[in-house]
From TrEMBL:
<keyword id="KW-0472">Membrane</keyword>
<feature type="domain" description="VTT">
    <location>
        <begin position="51"/>
        <end position="155"/>
    </location>
</feature>
<protein>
    <submittedName>
        <fullName>Membrane protein YqaA, SNARE-associated domain</fullName>
    </submittedName>
</protein>
<feature type="transmembrane region" description="Helical">
    <location>
        <begin position="102"/>
        <end position="120"/>
    </location>
</feature>
<feature type="transmembrane region" description="Helical">
    <location>
        <begin position="171"/>
        <end position="189"/>
    </location>
</feature>
<keyword id="KW-1133">Transmembrane helix</keyword>
<dbReference type="Pfam" id="PF09335">
    <property type="entry name" value="VTT_dom"/>
</dbReference>
<dbReference type="GO" id="GO:0005886">
    <property type="term" value="C:plasma membrane"/>
</dbReference>
<feature type="transmembrane region" description="Helical">
    <location>
        <begin position="132"/>
        <end position="159"/>
    </location>
</feature>
<keyword id="KW-0812">Transmembrane</keyword>
<feature type="transmembrane region" description="Helical">
    <location>
        <begin position="53"/>
        <end position="81"/>
    </location>
</feature>
<dbReference type="InterPro" id="IPR051311">
    <property type="entry name" value="DedA_domain"/>
</dbReference>
<dbReference type="InterPro" id="IPR032816">
    <property type="entry name" value="VTT_dom"/>
</dbReference>
């Protein structure tokens, strides 16, 4: 089923309203859809490299707005369903402690999920569930998603089709390594 969904998403890159389709895919991917917007971005940018920045901007804005939907899902459904159940089980204090710990590293959680292959939708929903400060969530989402989508657009604009396989197969690993080095650097500076 995922393969059919992937193929269907790829076919939309040739659609006359591809930018709108990209906006919709980026929006829903941030909370429920399993296929990342890169699947549309790559063929769109290869077809029209002069629109690379516009395509990356549409993906970024739509993804962050979709992230707000994911945040709302976590925030409103937890309040209505999750919290009463946990209170009845005597786990409300443990959940409050978890929320504090998650929100203590929330910037990093959103940044890592927004850049790496880790599903961004999981963090958008968890951010709402733990009531992460909305400003922290939005600013970090903008940084992470813009970084990811503009790097992809830059590589495709500069190198064209030859870099496509690298982006599809290896860029997630490169982003993951970058985040690990960034966190390691902060750790070294702070504790050494």
């Amino acid at each position: 089923m995922i393969r059919r969904l992937y193929d269907w998403t790829m076919s939309l890159a040739d659609h006359p309203k591809a930018l709108w389709v990209l906006a919709c895919v980026a929006f829903i991917e941030s909370s429920v859809f399993p296929i990342p917007p890169d699947v549309l971005m790559i063929p769109m940018i290869l077809a029209r490299p002069s629109r690379a920045w516009l395509i990356a901007l549409v993906a970024t804005v739509s993804s962050v707005l979709g992230g707000l939907l994911g945040y709302g899902i976590g925030f409103f459904f937890y309040e209505a369903i999750g919290e009463p159940i946990l209170s009845a089980l005597g786990k409300a204090d443990a959940m409050a402690e978890f929320n504090d710990r998650f929100n203590g590293v929330g910037f990093w959680a959103v940044l890592i999920a927004g850049i790496t292959p880790f599903p961004y939708k999981v963090i958008t929903i968890m951010s709402g569930w733990t009531a992460m400060p909305l400003a922290t969530f939005v600013v970090t989402s903008i940084i992470a998603r813009a970084f990811r989508f503009f790097i992809v657009a830059s590589l495709l604009r500069a190198f064209g089709a030859p870099v496509r396989q690298f982006i599809e197969k290896q860029l997630g690993l490169v982003f993951t390594l970058f985040v690990l080095l960034l966190i390691g650097g902060f750790y070294v500076v702070r504790f050494l």
